[in-house]
Amino acid sequence: MKTHLSPAIRLTLVMLVLVAVIYPLVVSGIARFAPGGGSGEKVIVNGKVVGYTLIGQKFTQDRYFNSRPSALDYNAAGSAGSNKGPSNPDYLKVAQARIDTFLVHNPGVDKAQIPAELVTASGSGLDPDLSPAAAKIQVARIARVRGISPERLNQLVDEHTKGPALGLFGPSTVNVLKINVALDALK
Amino acid sequence: MNTELTGVVVTYLITLLLAIPLGKLVGKIFRGEPNAFDFMAPLERLIYRVGGIDPKLDMTWKQNLVALLTINAVWFVYAFFMLLFQDKLPLNPDGNGAMTPDLAFNTAISFMVNCDLQHYSGESGLTYLTQLGVINFLMFVSAATGMAALALVVRAFLPEKTSLSGNFYVYFTKAITRVLLPGSLIVATILAFNGTPASFAGKDQFISLQGDTVNVSRGPAAGLIAIKHLGTNGGGYFGANSAHPLENPSYATNMVELIAQVMLPIIMLFALGYLINRKRFAWTVFGVMTAGFLLLVTPTLITEFHGSPAIAHLGVAQPAGAMEGKEVRFGPLSSAYWSIATTVISTGSVNSMHDSSMALSGSMQLLGMMTNAFYGGCGVGFLNYYYYLIIAVFISGLMVGRTPELFGRKVEAREIKIASIVALLSTLLVKGGVAIAAYVLVHHPDVNWAVKPAAWLNNTGYHGFSEILYEFTSANANNGSGFEGLGDNNFFWNVSTGIVMMLGRFIPIIGPLAIAGLLADKKYVPESAGTLATDTSTFGLMTFAVIIIITALSFFPALALGPLAEYFSLK
């Protein structure tokens, strides 16, 4: 053990310099050339930062596309899911309450058409996206509140739909913050 | 075809396409043959010189083992004190506090042993200094330790009559300079250009469109997330791990992170085939592991795609599948695939919350960790497979009436004893731990710990039992994922899982090293017509049966009480 203690300590020190000092500094240097300069890409409206592209935020007002439920109410100082198991009776009551609330705010919507993502919490609590279907089911409500035609809003959803990666892999998504910024700009 | 399914299939295929040729490269690196990374030689010479290491020194298996354990002990002491005093050290823009001693104990062990169980959340539990100087550092060196251990063990498979030797320090250094560091730089760059933060800027504050004041945690995350996957570590920079949109910004990065984490265990397998000149053997092992992987992944994909039966009862649509605990940009299928990939190999990072997975998926995730050898962690995956292999050789030898032997060396009582003890120990650690936790929960619900036992579980009934079972299984398998509803940051869980993690890591390294050392000392008998071939599909099937029987017998009762009971009660 003794003969190995000196190389152990010295090797630890040199590896600390290599992987815990040089490596992160190099990555940080490369990231300066990335969008947002390695500090996160911001969304700016009229010179004011209104959020980060990737960080979902709370939208509960009827005039906006509402985001998904969040276990931590979109407090981005942390991140968490609900961790509720699929058979948890309390959790199912919460989900039922979300469905009822949604139906109150969106009269005329057929319950069987509500995508489950609108009544279930995401893994991070900061999910920035909705599926196109979950955005479109909210169009009638927003059209009524804002006095914009549903056709125009459906078109807006289509414009903001990001297709699968390379057109081949994964789901289509709509960034909730970006579409709501565009919604405010429609007037 | 469904784009989500295509995404999963192509992700797996790209992993194989990259891993198989890279296996040969890593084999060359460990053999010391000329290779593409020879430009790293001057840096390595510098490291040896500063480290006081003679790279030409051949050490016995015992010396190598002592070297490995000593340097791990140094890391533990260093990490423990850094975490304990992180609030007084620089690079703490968010003003986060120190860890309690029991949490620092748990975290230092967790990252030293490549487990990465986290009883804290990165946003509030660590500083930028400890994220880089402790977490990011231990991720590199613990992965390199596993790779070096594998390289040392396989030398016993070579025909030359060498007493098992080699130099731990050299394998360890080369694993970092030629594999982990270059690979991590590539992955980190991809992540940074897709939106993962990599700067030292602290928390930001803004007012949202709806008028809420929101704080956003940031920091030097991209580099850490790269090695977290490449080294099959799995500890998240942020609390929500790779479900966090900054940790895993898009479906494309999700594919990259998936490929990065599954790649190295497969690379090491083919490197092994090259190291010992037995490519057919490597393919046989790969076949067994792949069969096991697919058997776990397929039912998980199907069950998540069908969605939650309880949510279906409420009458809403589940067009993509189950969505609780999952992110829209990944969807249920990629989340299902990830949940099995991360549990069969020992990463333990998550892109969805496993606690909210369907009951059947939970069983598959648990089985992945209980077996821990369907690919397995980088380096140690094969070491776990190795003791199944020894047992399979022994049993089939007895069945056909031949002397059990592996690669020209007789397998006798001592080797079998070691392999059996290692195989049985995991059962003891997992089920023993679960039993104690359940006892404390029932009989001492009000002990004055940071989280009282009565408040440990986030779910009641069968699922609550699964939360306990998952935590100990994950600790023993050096996995690190969790049913995160468990209230685990308190004295009981920090200490108990800390001990389980330590034993779950070092016993499966010491055991195979000892077996290899014993085998290498024996006389080499060239293979003949009377030798039991270990590279045939018959023998592969035999090994597979051994794995299934050992795992099923050990863990089926526990599974039946948790996720299986929940599954049948939901019908």
UniProtKB/TrEMBL annotation, chain A:
GO molecular function, one term: ATP binding
Keywords: ATP-binding, Cell membrane, Ion transport, Membrane, Nucleotide-binding, Potassium, Potassium transport, Transmembrane, Transmembrane helix, Transport
Signal peptide: none
One GO cellular component, as annotated: plasma membrane
One Pfam family linked to the record: KdpC
Keyword Hydrolase: no
Compartment(s) where it occurs, according to its Swiss-Prot or TrEMBL record: Cell membrane
Membrane topology reported for the UniProt record: Single-pass membrane protein
Subunit organization: The system is composed of three essential subunits: KdpA, KdpB and KdpC.
Family, as annotated: Belongs to the KdpC family.
NCBIfam families per record: kdpC, PRK00315.1, PRK14002.1
Function: Part of the high-affinity ATP-driven potassium transport (or Kdp) system, which catalyzes the hydrolysis of ATP coupled with the electrogenic transport of potassium into the cytoplasm. This subunit acts as a catalytic chaperone that increases the ATP-binding affinity of the ATP-hydrolyzing subunit KdpB by the formation of a transient KdpB/KdpC/ATP ternary complex.
Protein name as annotated: Potassium-transporting ATPase KdpC subunit
Classification lineage: Bacteria, Pseudomonadati, Bacteroidota, Cytophagia, Cytophagales
Primary gene name: kdpC
UniProtKB/TrEMBL annotation, chain B:
Gene that produces this protein: kdpA
Transcription regulation as UniProt keyword: no
Function: Part of the high-affinity ATP-driven potassium transport (or Kdp) system, which catalyzes the hydrolysis of ATP coupled with the electrogenic transport of potassium into the cytoplasm. This subunit binds the extracellular potassium ions and delivers the ions to the membrane domain of KdpB through an intramembrane tunnel.
A Pfam match: KdpA
Broad class of the protein's primary localization: membrane
PANTHER family, alphabetized: POTASSIUM-TRANSPORTING ATPASE A CHAIN, POTASSIUM-TRANSPORTING ATPASE POTASSIUM-BINDING SUBUNIT
UniProt KW keywords: Cell membrane, Ion transport, Membrane, Potassium, Potassium transport, Transmembrane, Transmembrane helix, Transport
Descriptive protein name: Potassium-transporting ATPase potassium-binding subunit
GO cellular component, one term: plasma membrane
GO molecular function, one term: P-type potassium transmembrane transporter activity
Self-association and partners: The system is composed of three essential subunits: KdpA, KdpB and KdpC.
Membrane topology: Multi-pass membrane protein
HAMAP family: KdpA
Transmembrane region(s): 6-26, 65-85, 134-158, 179-200, 258-276, 283-302, 373-400, 421-442, 491-519, 539-561
Top-level taxon: Bacteria
Subcellular location: Cell membrane
Lineage, top ranks: Bacteria, Pseudomonadati, Bacteroidota, Cytophagia, Cytophagales
Family listed: Belongs to the KdpA family.
InterPro entries according to UniProt: KdpA
